[in-house]
């Protein structure tokens, strides 16, 4: 009886967790691809340069691996080809366990992206989660006699369900890539006040780790005794710190971060010119021309890019992009919007609209967002 109960718990948890994890990643396949690129960078530096060859295919791998998680989870829950599915889950989880351990032990990738931006896990939390999952899969492998096929679900019906899971998973990922994530869990989502999130919600408290005579000491205030040697400063309430700490906008004239929060700003985000979509810019130019003519309410267009000034000057003349441009960090721009180019509408620093280049707004849509 105990083995049966344990089997049922493991069956539901493993199947449900894989479906949940896969769907969260498919919600934002570009974000998952960015995380894969981080791993490829680490492995190419630590093991072999061959991993660099995978970078151009990160998006395809993102959708494939995320869909595989969902499909295996569905197959397990409907008990379709249980033995094959369990072994695939085992080796997949074993691989993930190695990744998370390596990242945690050597502090390589600080966020595994297991649950996208929905749930942030530290490297050691990710490793612990994978170890528990691996144990549960081993339980299922040793008690798989309790996972006999359902009487009302034939092998053929189970195969149809799994095939539908394949089609639906891939469709979800492709659609999210061609538009924007269905659910935005990032700090630049619609409704967020960027300047407010750049400030701490409460005074920060720190502990100071000091060393003296080979021993470590912890102080709540920095010691005035100069015989102590400073080692580390640790935040005691990091949850009260700024949610956005890296949003900076500049050009050759200086810092223009605060100017981005004045009035109505239409941000044209170009991650980099080498991977953007040039054929979209005539539509963007039409939008900017329409906003300039309307003047009610007044909307100031601004381009943000991480490309060099030389690259962007050549590019903007090629596409006739008539708007002032500024520079920002590439990671920040990818966090702001997954589309390259993408459009954000700010009203006094509050994000009131976000659009993928496949869903560019009309002048009327922009104006309605500002009412």
Give an overview of the whole structure.
Helix 9 links the parallel strand 7 and strand 8. The longest helix is centred in the first third of the chain and has 26 residues. The chain is of the alpha+beta class and 371 residues long. The chain has three domains: 177 residues, no CATH class; 35 residues, no CATH class; 120 residues, 3-Layer(aba) Sandwich (Glutaredoxin), CATH 3.40.30.10. It contains eleven helices and ten strands. InterPro entries: Methylamine_util_MauE.
Can you give me a brief rundown of this structure?
Its main location: membrane. This protein is of the alpha+beta class.
Write the layout of secondary structure elements.
Layout lengths: L1 H26 L1 H18 L11 H20 L4 H25 L16 H20 L12 H24 L15 H4 L8 E7 L2 E5 L9 E7 L14 E2 L2 E2 L8 E7 L10 H14 L5 E6 L3 H11 L5 E3 L2 H7 L5 E6 L2 E7 L6 H7 L2
Helix pairs in contact: 1-3, 1-5, 1-6, 2-3, 3-4, 3-6, 4-5
Can you give the mean pLDDT?
91
Order of helices and strands: HHHHHHHEEEEEEHEHEHEEH
Instruction: Please state the overall shape, judged from the principal axes of the Cα atoms.
Output: globular
Distance between the terminal alpha carbons, to the nearest Å? 63 Å
Q: Give the class from helix and strand content and strand pairing.
A: alpha+beta
Rg estimate, integer Å: 25 Å
Instruction: Please bin the fraction of helical residues.
Output: 40-55%
List the total number of helices: 11
Number of domains: 3
